[in-house]
Amino acid sequence: MRRKRLAVLTGAGVSAESGLGTFRDSGGLWENYRVEDVASAEGWIRNPGLMLEFYNTRRRQLADVRPNAAHLAIAGLEKDFDVTVITQNVDNLHERAGSTRIIHLHGELTKVRPENCCNESDGFSEASVFDIGYGDINLGDKAPNGAQLRPHIVWFGEAVPKIEAAMDAVEKADVMLIVGTSLQVYPAAGLFRYAGIDVPIYVIDPKEVPVSDPRITHIKDVATSGMEKFVLMAAKNFE
Length: 239
Ligand code: OAD
What we know:
Largest sheet: 6 strands, parallel
Mean pLDDT: 95
Structural class: alpha/beta
Bound molecules: 2'-O-acetyl adenosine-5-diphosphoribose
CATH class of the largest domain: Alpha Beta
Distance between the termini: 11 Å
């Protein structure tokens, strides 16, 4: 019998217990920064230095945190399921926890690229993307093609090149799990709608789920203890 396919969509809440702030909770990042200044295509044109500093700070923080029990539990699901993690997070905590198939919808903090590549004009090719680990990028840091380096992040106003791969994973899933996202940012927020009509969808979040759908079971809890509950349910219901 084939292993069941599990699509896991994660957001900032899965990394909150590692010490990375969420965006829209009280005290979240978007209370202290204007999205249009630090995470938009227009912001990059207006003030690239400010945006580089914002992501340099995020990158330095990432070096100091570790995957938590929720990331580890998600990685552990690969023992029994064919798992695809679709994350809106730009951190690398799913990788560091051991997940092997990860779609980063909004890019990756530890990667950079020239500002003039990886868009519609070159078919979103990632040939010029490279790893910088936890280091800074500054104005004047150039790629081999001579262009300014920028973070490999999807900003508001930009296309989401990985959305089709994510839709495909959700369409093929037997079970879907959503952890720690406010479901406010599209197209990620609409992904669960591509799940099959009989596919159970589990949502782990301490807040109410902002959408209503008969397929949804809400595990109203934080990611770490919510994942413990999900793992028990999965062992009982799906293996
Ligand atoms: P949000 O900050 O919008 O939502 C975080 C969610 O995590 C909320 O529903 C919280 O209730 C929940 N949460 C908080 N603590 C939690 C915990 N310990 N365990 C589980 N859940 C918890 O973050 P996202 O939905 O990820 O995009 O935001 C989506 C996108 O908006 C981000 O990828 C980013 C942002 O603007 C870009 O920058 C392009």
